[in-house]
Amino acid sequence: MGEGIDAACIGERVITDNWLRDPAEPENINKTGYFGSERDGGFAEYTTIPARNAIAIRSELTDAELATFSCSYSTAEGMLSRANVTSGDTVLVPGASGGVGGALVQLAKRRGARVIAMASEAKHDEVARLGPDLILPRAPADLRRSLRAETITVVADVVGGPYWPKLIDILERGGRYTCSGAIAGPMVELDLRRFYLRDLTFTGSTVIDPAVTRRLVRYIEAGDITPNLAATYPLEELREAQAAFIAKTHSGNIVVTP
Q1: pLDDT for 42
Q2: Between 212-222 and 74-82, two packed helices, what is the crossing angle to 10 degrees?
Q3: What is the CATH number of domain 7-70+209-257?
Q4: What is the per-residue pLDDT across 4-28, written as a single tens digit (0 to 9) for each?
Q5: Closest C-alpha among 81, 127, 88, 121 to residue 106
Q6: Are 247 and 97 in contact (CB under 8 A)?
Q7: Which of 10, 44, 141, 229 is the 20 to 30 Å CA partner of 173?
Q8: Which of 69, 66, 58, 155 has the alpha carbon at shortest distance from 113?
Q9: 78-204: CATH homologous superfamily?
């Protein structure tokens, strides 16, 4: 414990907000860093973090289950917040079997939205447990026909890649596209006329609002969202854990335990 920290905090279970902010300007996204990136400790057995970033939580979930929320779910909640997703929306989620994709499904459903998930057919059973209203293959040749009468108002994407133009094509006029990743490739093609003539809104999402992780803690304590734990690896098997993550044969989140 650092100086000035209440010793009563010792022994608390916590979830960390991994965005390290300037205490004088916590809303200034130009003065942020990420734990494990700009500050060492992402794969350490022992580490430190500012006390304000350690949020107490009361939950019966295991440590590994709680660890699934801190990055994937905060990323997803940040995306949905930027896109102002409400109960009036129908949200399309490519890559729904991944950590962030699965979190997007659950969190969009929590907001009351209709959710359509896209994932490899071998992973449809796992994705179905997250509660989407409809599940499509990962990349249908005719996406519009696969959607039938669905009207897509939001695309929440961490995939990108060559399929990206099809996602933009099916957005309803006035729709929103929100993105926090490009696992299938960062280079995409866009006809700007589709963007401006159809009144679309694009939002990138990286640095989340300071309130996001605290909201997640409330959701977890209320049982509104559940962990999507695919596997755990001990720290000494970090290499194997990273290989499994890159292979992407799993659904959900991989957790490394000390």
Answers
A1: 86
A2: 110
A3: 3.90.180.10
A4: 898 888 999 999 999 999 999 999 9
A5: 127
A6: no
A7: 141
A8: 155
A9: NAD(P)-binding Rossmann-like Domain (3.40.50.720)
